């Protein structure tokens, strides 16, 4: 992408809520949200969020976000019913997340035909700075994003897909400004600082973005 500025690149923020990593290959997706960025800012009018019917009962574990109960999930569409919408939003674009490799591993396991341009990680970017706690909620507070989040996602809450996706979309330009305060970086500079590669299969096979 050469000298193209970072905010001229097609980026979408992503977050999933799942049944838990202890389910291993059987981990179910319970909720998904995608928020496009336009000129570096979240485009909430084009945001997509949905509960997902996992097709099986989900035990009420402590780490499953409030509100993700069998009663509401059984009324939600299955993942294959929203797969085309996710592909339309994500294919060919850079996918942004906070610890994005966790979400990508789960999503690509269920929808292996998705083909984003690559992955960007706000957690990787935050690790280059002096934040003592790099959790998403703490960074929202540290970078004074609380009011923006209430305005943008007041009907949601932390650890739900929409809230976390919007928070990540707002977090990216804040982190970029701290790293490059004088002028916006090129996308190549951002990619070098924030992109991640995740294996798509066994350890001896190349990853999707290698």
TrEMBL record:
| Coiled-coil boundaries | none
In Gene Ontology terms, what is one molecular function of this protein?
Answer: 3'-5' exonuclease activity
Q: Which UniProt keywords apply?
A: Exonuclease, Hydrolase, Nuclease
Q: Which SUPFAM superfamilies match?
A: Ribonuclease H-like
The question of whether Nuclease is a record keyword is answered with: yes
Supply one GO BP term.
Answer: DNA replication proofreading
Question: GO CC terms for this protein?
Answer: cytosol
Q: Which residues form the Exonuclease domain?
A: 10-181
Asked if the Swiss-Prot or TrEMBL record annotates the protein with the keyword Manganese, the reply is no
**Which protein are we looking at?**
3'-5' exonuclease
Which species does the entry assign this protein to?
Micromonospora inaquosa
């Amino acid at each position: 992408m050469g000298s193209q500025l970072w905010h001229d690149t097609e980026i979408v923020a992503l977050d999933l809520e799942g049944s838990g990593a202890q389910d291993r290959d059987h981990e179910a997706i319970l909720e998904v949200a995608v928020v496009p960025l336009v000129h570096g800012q979240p485009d909430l009018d084009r945001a997509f969020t949905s509960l997902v019917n996992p097709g099986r009962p989900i035990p009420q574990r402590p780490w499953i976000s409030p509100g993700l109960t069998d009663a509401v999930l059984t009324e939600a569409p299955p993942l294959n019913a929203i797969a085309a919408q996710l592909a339309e939003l994500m294919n060919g674009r850079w996918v942004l997340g906070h610890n994005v490799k966790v979400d990508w591993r789960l999503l690509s396991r269920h929808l292996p035909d998705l083909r984003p341009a690559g992955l960007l990680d706000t957690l990787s970017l935050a690790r280059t700075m002096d934040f003592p706690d790099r959790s998403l909620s703490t960074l929202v507070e540290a970078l004074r994003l609380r009011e923006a989040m209430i305005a943008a996602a007041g009907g949601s809450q932390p650890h739900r897909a929409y809230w976390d996706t919007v928070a990540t979309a707002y977090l990216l330009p804040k982190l970029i400004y701290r790293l490059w305060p004088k002028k916006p970086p090129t996308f190549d500079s951002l990619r070098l600082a924030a992109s991640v590669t995740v294996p798509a299969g066994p350890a001896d096979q190349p990853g999707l973005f290698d």
